[in-house]
Amino acid sequence: MYIALQEQEYVDLYSSFLLNDSVKKQFNAFRRGFQMVVDESPLTFLFRPDELELLVRGSPVYDFNELERVTTYEEYTSDSTVIKNFWSIVHSMTKEQKKQLLQFSTGSDRVPVGGMSKMKFTIARQGSDTNR
């Protein structure tokens, strides 16, 4: 029993060291910088926490129907077979796959504030039909 208690104490102390003590200096520097921005910022008075989160993280809603409505096409139309196939595949994707598509096409897997309609999304034909 005494050995088991020592082992648990060791695990607790080691965990505390890894999660707290080993990063204390870096975390304190981060906290000071963060507080300099937030504590003196008018953002704290202008926005509620959920609004700040939306500004920082973007919209949590992945509405690809909205993106389809605002997409523009170059040398295609929304009625082109390849475009219909594209949207059919997109709409059948999982949320994670849709996030990956956003990451690939925009450089970010986040939806902009205001939703997908705020994105500029263009599908363009490249090269001749024989090159595809």
UniProtKB/TrEMBL annotation:
Pfam families to which the protein is assigned, alphabetical: HECT
InterPro entries (UniProt xref): E3A/B/C-like, HECT_dom, Hect_E3_ubiquitin_ligase
Span of domain HECT: 8-132
Signal sequence interval, chain numbering: none
Enzymatic reactions: S-ubiquitinyl-[E2 ubiquitin-conjugating enzyme]-L-cysteine + [acceptor protein]-L-lysine = [E2 ubiquitin-conjugating enzyme]-L-cysteine + N(6)-ubiquitinyl-[acceptor protein]-L-lysine
GO biological-process terms attached to the record: protein polyubiquitination
GO molecular function, one term: ubiquitin protein ligase activity
Keyword hit for Transferase: yes
Keyword line: Transferase, Ubl conjugation pathway
EC number: 2.3.2.26
UniProt name for this protein: HECT-type E3 ubiquitin transferase
Lineage start: Eukaryota, Metazoa, Spiralia, Lophotrochozoa, Platyhelminthes
